[in-house]
Amino acid sequence: MKISVLGMGIIGSAWAKNLIADGHEVRCWNRTPKNLPNYHASIQEATEGAEVVFIVVADPPAVQSVLEQIQPCLGPGMLVIQSSTISARWTRIFAEQVKLTGALFLEAPFTGSKPAAEQRQTVYYLGGEPEVVEKARPVLEPISSVILHIGPLGSASSLKLAMNLNIAGVAQSLCESLTLCRSAGIPDDVYFSALARNVSHSGVADLKESKLCQHDYAPQFSLKHMTKDLRLALETAADCSVTLSLTGNLKEIYDKGMAAGWSDDDFIGLIRLVEKD
């Protein structure tokens, strides 16, 4: 198929590489130039004539900017797969903009960081009409491990934000728990060996163990993106008249990490705040 990938960050780059390996005709674009195969400096050239258009950018303003630029290129027969993590409110706004062109719109946020994307283990949360989901399956299934159709437009975005605030909470507990043991002189290998046999053991611990032990904060999922997701989760909760006290506290911790200049580091690097305290 003719596929455009708009947004060549950590995840978009991995997906594009796998889509190329699958034999698709892939054209790539990024807001800042990238030295990548099939890269196009013009977003319109990258999009014109595509059958499927992936949008994988940072936040609602970035999605809006992309749509404004490619709207003249969209039309009947095209499918826009919006995989940026945004809120349900923004998802519905963007879906209406795309539908005005005659193209189809699917919300497809996902879980799984850089290793998962590279190893075709992305888990997609899909929101939209069943027929649109089926149209996307031939492209999504080979680059993912699981596809979950959550419900109508907006539902997948809300679920994704809920999953990310859960990850942030588990990660913060992990950082504080590990720091407590370190302060008591307990080696990291002993800590993680015990954690593996404890009911609180988590996939987050498995993913971040080596990074924590090696003090390696190179991004698998950056602090700035998780901070944005917590903000959107709080905005969504406010729209629903729901109070998320823990998430509010987490957002303050993440803001401190951003102020410390760690925006491009992995979010697990927030352990440095615990160590300072």
Explained architecture:
By secondary structure, the protein is α/β, with parallel strands linked by helices. Helix content is 52%, strand content 14%. It has helices at residues 10-21, 43-47, 60-70, 88-99, 114-118, 130-140, 155-183, 188-195, 203-214, 223-239, 245-259, 271-276; strands spanning 2-6, 25-29, 52-55, 79-82, 104-107, 110-111, 122-127, 144-151. The strands form two sheets. Strands 2-1-3-4-5 form a five-stranded parallel sheet, with helices on both faces. Strands 6-7-8 form a three-stranded mixed sheet. Helix 1 links the parallel strand 1 (2-6) and strand 2 (25-29). Helix 3 (60-70) packs parallel to helix 4 and helix 10 (223-239) packs antiparallel against helix 11. The radius of gyration is 19 Å and the shape is globular.
Features of this protein?
single chain; 277 residues; alpha/beta; five-stranded parallel sheet; three-stranded mixed sheet; 8 strands; 52% helix; globular
| Strand segment count | 8
Radius of gyration: 19 Å
Give the CA-based shape.
globular
Helix content: 40-55%
Structural class: alpha/beta
